[in-house]
Design a protein that fits this description.
The chain is α+β, with helices and mostly antiparallel strands and 63 residues long. The protein starts with a strand and ends with a strand. It is globular, with a radius of gyration of 10 Å. Helix content is 27%, strand content 19%. It has one domain: Alpha-Beta Plaits. The mean pLDDT is 97.
C-alpha cells in the first residue's frame, strides 16, 4: 500500500503531520509533504489511514 496525496486539495490544516509526523511534514507554507512515497509497512499503513481519516479535505488516500 502507498499514500496517495492530492496537493491541490490540501488546505494546510496540519492534522496529518500533527498525528503522524513519521509520514508527513509541512512545507514552508504550512502544507503537507509526504515523507514516505514507497510501500508502507503495517504500522505505516495504520498511521496513513489515521491521517486520511482525519483530513477534512480528503486529500490523502491509502491504496
Amino acid at each position: 500500500m502507498k499514500i496517495q496525496f492530492d496537493r491541490e486539495k490540501c488546505q494546510g490544516h496540519g492534522r496529518c503531520y500533527a498525528l503522524v509526523p513519521s509520514l508527513f511534514e509541512c512545507d514552508d507554507e504550512g502544507y503537507a509533504v509526504v515523507n514516505e512515497l514507497g510501500e508502507l509497512d503495517v504500522a505505516q499503513v495504520h498511521g496513513a489511514r489515521l491521517a486520511a481519516d482525519n483530513c477534512p479535505e480528503f486529500a490523502i488516500t491509502v491504496e
